[in-house]
Amino acid sequence: MKMACSINITPNKVVINGKELHYTERGEELLTAIYRSQINDYPKFFKMDSLCRLGFVASELLLNGELDRFKPREDRAIVFFNSSSSLCNDENYQKTIQDKNNYFPSPAIFVYTLPNIVTGEIAIRNKYYGETSFYVLDRLDIESMEQIINDTFQDLTTKSVLGGWLDCKDKDHFEAHLFLIKDEETSNLPNWDKTIINKIIYSKQ
I need a surface site. Which of 35, 102, 113, 137 has the fewest CB within 10 A? Predict the structure, then answer.
């Protein structure tokens, strides 16, 4: 397996393939700034919860240079991981139902109380018809991530995976470490293994 590209987004920094994009905004405002400066053609962004916004802008930056970007394809999977599931939005939804005297459950908030909504959003945007999965782990476990993503390539269809760690504790505390991994052996791209995953995720943020 080969790693075609990578992206890291934290509340303070955006790094694509080792190169930083400079923004003055921080936290939630950083995601909006990325959207406005780099994407700005998908108004549904403003209806998304924080986890979806994070995954959406990270995937957009990661995939932006691909040829035939929006051509429908069945050979690409999306496999994400985190340790907090959709907790950030779950807490927002809980506020709408916990007081029986002020009970106003919101369908617009409820729809984001599943973490795999973000994989669906990305698949719809990019016309991917392969596997979409979201695994909730106890912690950032690189060996488990590597094994699960490698297993995804065992079917006869998957040729590439958009995968990695996507976690959002609240609107100002989040991290995205995403990779585009391809089933290639002869290219000059770096090998996809836990060594390079560690190097990228734990590089100075």
Answer: 102
